[in-house]
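quick one before i forget lol
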Amino acid sequence: MVTRSMLLSLLLALCATAVPAQNRRAERPLMTLVNTERAFARTSAEKGMDSAFVAFLADDAVIFRPNPVNGQDWFQTHHHPSIELIWAPAFADVALSGELGYTTGPSIARDKEDTASPPSYGDFVTIWKKRQRGWKVALDMGVSHSAPAGEAHLTLPGD
């Protein structure tokens, strides 16, 4: 015979196993976003900044040059200086719906042709939209600043 205390214990056990499963589902979009940002940066290092932006920007993505413009159009129609752009996400989050997210972190730009010149430092913010085939950049922007005092590290919500 099932007693109330046994039933209550079973119910609590089920709830306890459901919470970690919900957390894993919630983490999945966040980790896919972070991994997409890392792939974006890796593509820039391996194939060049222009190729990376064309590959990861949505068709209607907005970038600032210095005013807002369509990113795909801009990267496909402008000649760009030989710049190595290096960046990494330091913080990321995804909406509860799993459809929008953002990444932000430090960046370094170096002139590939003038290796003696000092690098430029900055920070970026990228807004991402979830599409059928993964994340695409909806908006990308950044700011320049002097050399940072220390190295940034990835921080996820809840850390």
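fyi Residues 1-26 have pLDDT under 50 and may be disordered.
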